[in-house]
Inverse folding.
């Protein structure tokens, strides 16, 4: 009986590990900028995951200088993240076929990185 219980517990542990690994998201850097590109507002569209995902990255100067991202994916749950110096902002997760909300962070000098997770 103890051997059966140990075997069942081992199988459950392996299954939990497999599920945890398969449920983890992939994060990719979709864009990076530094230097003189932050003098006026701009928006760029970036594709990822064999063009199943779209990230809209931007530098906005409306109220104050900010870096933004929103993300769309046709087949997977997804989110976005923008990192500006020591500050970062992340969108919420969104189901396949829908845009995330926009995440924005106050612009900082140096390199700005935009990421998509799916």
């Amino acid at each position: 009986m103890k051997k059966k219980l140990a075997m069942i517990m081992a199988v459950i542990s392996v299954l939990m590990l497999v599920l945890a690994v398969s449920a983890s998201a992939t994060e990719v850097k979709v864009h990076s900028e530094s230097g003189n590109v932050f003098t006026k507002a701009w928006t760029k569209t970036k594709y990822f995951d064999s063009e199943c995902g779209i990230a809209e990255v931007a530098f906005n100067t409306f109220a104050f200088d900010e870096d933004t991202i929103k993300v769309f994916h046709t087949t997977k749950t997804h989110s976005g993240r923008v990192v500006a110096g020591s500050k970062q902002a992340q969108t919420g997760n969104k189901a396949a076929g829908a845009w995330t909300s926009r995440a924005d962070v106050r612009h900082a000098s140096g390199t700005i990185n935009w990421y998509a997770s799916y």
Summary: The beta strands are 27-33, 42-48, 53-60, 66-73, 79-84, 87-90, 103-106, 112-117. The helical segments are 2-23.
